[in-house]
Amino acid sequence: NLQYPNTTLTAWQGLLENFKEEGSLHSKFAGDIKNETVVTLQEQRNHVKESVKRIYGFRDGISSSSVRESEHRDKCQKDYSSLWTKYKAQLNSGTTKKGSIMPTYTAYNNYLLQLTYSNGMNQSALDVQLPNLMQELEAVEHNLHNFLVSVLSYTFSRQDHHFNECRDIVGNSTTTIQNINPALDVAKLGES
Fold this sequence. Notes:
Blueprint lengths: L7 H86 L8 H77 L3 H10 L1
């Protein structure tokens, strides 16, 4: 074949080699994209999972604290209300004893303290906890955005490189076809 470099048979064999090389390039390109994006996706997934876990933990912590605090506040309010009702009944019946108002005052103070604590907790949630939660969510969003940009950038870069390699192969095939010399084909046929 080297003796007849511009024959149809030589061109055909060259085309087959070029197609084989192009197929290998497609396979390598797909493997590169898969390997790069899968590994990166797995790393990003793990990072997002950790962030979501922290966010859920934060939410659950606020929720359980709020429920406990609310239950305690409601209990203090009921205790105070119950003692006040009893004290009013004693006043109306004229059976009040000296110092019988003290448990009512204590319950009232407990209720006010719990109410103050509740308001402080709510203020803390608004001033500190929710901004921290928003910061965590913004970080997750920022990381996902950067991740998608990097994956797309890598993919487009590899795709551009891949298409250039394929273009070169097609260019070689075109040159091989254009250089076929029909007279050599006839000469080769005459020899056989």
